[in-house]
Amino acid sequence: MPIDFRNTNTVWASVLAETLQRLGLTTAVICPGSRSAPLTIAFAQNNKIETLPILDERSASFFSLGIAKKSGLPTALICTSGTAAANFYPAIIEARESRIPLLIFTADRPPELRDCHAGQAIDQVKIYGNYPNWQAELAIPSASRGMLDYLRQTIVYAWERSQFPTPGPVHLNIPFRDPLVPVPDIAVEALETQFNPEEFFAGLEPIFAGESSTPPSPPLLRGGEESTMQQWQKCSKGIIIAGVAQPQFAEKYCSAIGQISQYLNWPVLAEGLSPVRNYAQLNTHLIYTYDLILRNRELADKLTPEIAIQIGDLPTSKELRNWLDKTQPKRYIIDPSDHNFDPLHGKTIHLRTSVENLATNLATILTQVPPLIKGGLGGDRTPATPAISPQIPPLNKGESTQIPPLNKGGLGGVPTSPSNEYLQLWRNTEIQVRQTIDQKISAINNIIEPKVSWLLSQILPPATPIFIANSMPVRDVEFFWKPNNLEIKPFFNRGANGIDGTLSTALGVAHRNQSSIMLTGDLTLLHDTNGFLIKNKFIGHLTIILINNNGGGIFEMLPVAKFDPPFEEFFATPQQINFAQLCATYGVEHEVIEDWEQFKEKLNLLPNSGIRVLELQTDRRSDAKWRQDNLSKFAKDL
């Protein structure tokens, strides 16, 4: 019997857990506490839900976030009353900003024990402000059939709102009166004979956002004398920006971007925190050195676009953002959510659709009109036979319509000449900057931070999930992560861009997943060392690549670095931690990497279980100076 009729609280909590299980919930993360005992017992007794006890609430919430990132399904997160709930806040903010489904259940004291110093009672109603997609306080538990119907349907609605219309967190505050433990109540036990669970749960089926949940194309994309897509086709100076993204179906996502690029003959400026760089065979017009190219002001002016299609969030690059702000192209933002993705407040039109849906619509519309020859940097354009087939099927691994297939981890051959001078300028520049970067970095023998990302993009086992920490690692990935065909899966917390919970999120991504990687700096790891407490419940493997430069490397790149004091003490904040001793405390494997051959050897074949730290000790100031000396030079003489 899925419903526990020992008392009112057990009935209430077990109906909640069973409803979620039937809707598709697979994982619940539970923090210890007394007031939440009915919820804890109900989830622990449901053998179809994996329940994971995590001591620290902040760590637990980010671990849940990581699991939800990987699965695309809501994860349940449960805590007791009081300040325990407050520790969930950073992860809830991140879930909202990065559009990750979470279900937060905070147990609470009943109304009569609030505002009277009853202990462990704070105001938990709407404690997370406007960050949840939806939030409510449930009624006091009742074992009546009418109230159980109310509970079931409220949980169904909460599950739906965590995924539609935009994924994000949902918070339910749940008051419980004593008894909190399952002591029998004869009056409630008698209800069991009147309760038919199959009738009660009839009609409940898994509900989740899948590939078929894409909304229809907006009216803007259809009809009219000259549709939006036909305007795109006429434009010879257009770009596609593949921004920060962690899609559930990465290959289809990348294939859709590649199809749009080929239909329009536009380059794809692909962020390192996008799977596009790791499915390079699907994008024949791939540009990854855009940040470095745009540091050459003369080239940046020549490359001014008329139209930009921005897919999801903008890339991290400040150079790209400043360039878009200066040139003000007409910009179309492609994302099915209801969020505003334009921090530049430019000439933007949000098309609330997925990139996969856009590619389908583009194929349909453009095959109904005569294709146009792409002109040069200006001039008339006349209808002609298309340079590519108007119907481009999804590319198979290793195939390409215009360039030779890339070897695993390689850059591939030089593309054939396209019909568009603007595109050709991008591609020629890209080839030269790639070669310059490769020559410069491959010759470096000492351990230096920028080479880590460059090398990882070539040596990781295929399809490896990698969680990339904020601050300097995400920027080095954008600068130096090489296009490849390894199908590596990048994960990150770029919603609010904080360093909170990085280790815990990475463990959530790696839990019951393929052996995974985390790339982080020392301060970010230290900020979440309680994440190591998850070790005994963690199933899988995580290798932590620790760049230890004894401080905040990102601050060395900012103007404040010139003002010391107080820079070193208050911004760089070196901690002087012996990570070997720290890892030993938690029973985590640790090894210092002395050279690049050792580094490659350790990553050639990842272990199947456990957590290990590979520490690369670097010089924060000299690495910052290397970036400052070289980033602006890679495209200087082109």
Describe this entry's structure for a reader.
The chain has 638 residues and is of the alpha/beta class. Helix content is 35%, strand content 14%. The protein contains 23 helices and 18 strands. It has a six-stranded parallel sheet with strand order 2-1-3-4-6-5, sandwiched between helices. Strands 9-8-7-10-11-12 form a six-stranded parallel sheet, with helices on both faces. A six-stranded parallel sheet has the order 14-13-15-16-18-17. β7, α10 and β8 (268-270) form a beta-alpha-beta unit. α1 (8-23) packs parallel to α6. The radius of gyration is 27 Å and the shape is globular.
Gist of the model:
The protein is α/β, with parallel strands linked by helices and 638 residues long.
CA radius of gyration is 27 Å
* Percent range for β-strand residues: 5-15%
Q: Give the total of beta strands.
A: 18
Uncertain residue ranges: 211-217, 371-418
Q: Number of DSSP helices?
A: 23
- Helical amount among residues, as a percent range? 25-40%
Q: Name the shape in a single word.
A: globular
Mean pLDDT: 90
User: How are strands sequenced across the largest beta sheet?
Assistant: 2-1-3-4-6-5
N-to-C CA distance: 73 Å
Task: Assign the structural class, choosing from mainly alpha, mainly beta, alpha/beta, alpha+beta, or little secondary structure.
Answer: alpha/beta
Main beta sheet = 6 strands, parallel
